[in-house]
From TrEMBL:
Monomer. The gene is cysS. Binds 1 zinc ion per subunit. A motif ('KMSKS' region) lies at residues 287-291. Its cofactor is Zn(2+). It is an enzyme of class 6 (ligase). Belongs to the class-I aminoacyl-tRNA synthetase family. Residues 374-437 form the Cysteinyl-tRNA synthetase class Ia DALR domain. Its EC number is 6.1.1.16. Zn(2+) binds at C35, C230, H255, E259. GO terms for molecular function: ligase activity. This is Cysteine--tRNA ligase. NCBIfam families: cysS (TIGR00435).
Length: 492
């Protein structure tokens, strides 16, 4: 029997504002779409926290034996400055400032995004589509919305008529906003005269002559609106109605609200059963912002090259720190907080290292089955990682008591306890044992130094063919040798 049959899961649904039983559309299968990054700059720490939340959710679904299709997009066009319908595309702006092709900008920061997520031990999504790869699908959706009378063409651009849509639907169903209040509180903005209503949003924008990124369409050479890409990609890979749509809290309005409106205008049905939103990350009690200097990049945490922290912290420690807060809670990042997290992480890893040396007895004095279920209860309660971590430290306490001989554990319970503890730490939370990695690095350094000694001996014996062979094979493995006055060193 798959594990999910015995572990009922509740998810907080932003649409209802309540925790609800998770019932997938297709039994044993989960379709999940998460809004990915706009690749015009280095991925910031707040992004990492959001994607980490959904990485853990993805991992837990897999742990429960669900078959998961996890789609996370790359926004490589159409994200206009300040998320309004005027201005210029962020990627095009970056390309102009740095005198690059837009796709050079996209490639640079997509690689950075993948490198950072790999460093933090993220599982890759099932599909990672790009907005530019789905222009045709976006144009087809626009045609459908125009056919319903809700989309209208104005001066080569196409807009979504929010007021007309709201006559038969509820624009504000996700965010709780009232359309009449929004219209009353919105000032007319210069350059928006093509719109029928201030709240209308762009489905397609006619490109000005200087705009670099443009595609032909029935209405103009232009580019799609920001909200449209996620509607196109989510429905293409998950269908018109799927299980979960996730993203940062800041995307609830207008982005996700507009997605719902677009889907309902096209299909006549709500697209998603469960809307999930991860909360923000602050730094020293204040909002992170590059403009104020209250900001730190993920890579700067790992390198220690920053003015915020007292030293460098590893990816696993940073990950452990972030998972100590529930994904729907605001989390404040500080030197004191991550230093405390590092101590807790080390305690957890030391306990795990002690597991293989524990001696089994005839019976158990602790109810390990109840402990294991408590771990599941935490994750089944809307993926409550801080409660799970509290249970993991309860396991640390048990291990210390067992080491001291104050408690006993049977062979069967020891096996169950060990498997469960490792599964929750490494498979579900996605942590890594850095001591094991450090040990592997020590072994690697020893092997390379041995080969360097062999190469030095070959050179002394004038066996330059062997010397060059050792050097070239190390280069082939990504290990660069550097000969200097004080000997030969290497870098990876």
């Amino acid at each position: 029997m798959p594990l999910y049959t015995s572990q009922p899961l509740k998810i907080y649904n932003s649409l209802s504002g309540e925790k609800e039983d998770f019932i997938p559309i297709h039994e044993g299968n989960v379709g999940m779409y998460v809004c990915g990054p706009t690749v015009y700059s280095n991925v910031h720490l707040g992004n990492v926290r959001t994607f980490m939340s959904f990485d853990v959710i993805f991992r837990y679904f897999l742990h429960l034996d669900y078959k998961v299709r996890y789609v996370r997009n790359i926004t490589d066009v159409g994200h206009i400055v300040d998320d309004v319908d005027e201005g210029e595309d962020k990627i095009a702006k970056k390309a102009r400032l740095e005198q690059l092709e837009p796709m050079e900008v996209v490639q640079r920061y997509t690689v950075d995004f993948h490198d950072i997520l790999k460093a933090f031990n993220f599982l890759p999504p099932s599909i990672e589509p790009t907005a530019t790869g789905h222009i045709i699908e976006q144009i087809e959706i626009i045609k459908k919305i125009i056919d319903t009378g809700i989309g209208y063409v104005a001066n080569g651009s196409v807009y979504f008529d929010v007021v007309k849509y709201n006559e038969t639907n509820n624009y504000g169903v996700l965010s709780g906003r009232n359309i009449e209040d929004m219209l009353a509180n919105t000032r007319d903005l210069d350059g928006q005269s093509d719109k029928r209503n201030p709240q209308d949003f762009a489905l397609w924008k006619r490109a000005e002559p200087e705009h670099i990124m443009r595609w032909p369409s029935p209405w103009s050479d232009g580019f799609p609106g920001w909200h449209l890409e996620c509607t196109a990609m989510s429905t293409k890979y998950l269908g018109n109605h799927f299980d979960i749509h996730g993203g940062g809290m800041d995307l609830k309005f207008p982005h996700h609200e507009c997605e719902i409106a677009q889907n309902e205008a096209c299909t006549g049905q709500s697209p998603v059963n469960y809307w999930m939103h991860a909360n923000m990350l602050t730094l020293n009690g204040k909002k992170m912002a590059k403009s104020t200097g209250n900001n730190i990049l993920p890579g700067e945490i790992l390198s220690g090259n920053n003015t915020v922290l007292s030293k460098a912290f590893s990816a696993s420690v940073t990950r452990f720190f972030m998972l100590q807060a529930h994904y729907r809670s605001i989390l404040d990042f500080s030197d004191d907080a991550i230093t405390a997290a590092e101590k807790g992480y080390k305690r957890l890893m030391e306990a795990l290292d002690a597991l293989p040396s524990l001696n089994a007895g005839a019976s158990s004095s602790i109810d390990f089955t109840a402990w294991k279920q408590a771990c599941y209860d935490a994750m089944n309660d809307d993926f409550n990682t801080p409660i799970l971590i509290a249970q993991l430290f309860e396991a640390v306490r048990y291990i210390n008591l067992l080491k001291e001989g104050k408690e006993t554990i049977s062979a069967e319970d020891l096996k169950t306890f060990s498997i469960a503890l490792n599964a929750f730490v490494f498979d579900v939370l996605g942590l890594s044992d850095e001591k094991a990695a450090d040990g592997n690095n020590d072994k690697l350094e020893g092997v390379v130094n041995m080969l360097i000694a062999m190469r030095n001996q070959a050179r002394a014996d004038k066996n330059f063919a062997l010397s060059d062979q050792i050097r070239d094979q190390l280069i082939g493995l990504g290990i660069q040798l550097k000969d200097g006055k004080e000997g030969t060193s290497f870098s990876i």
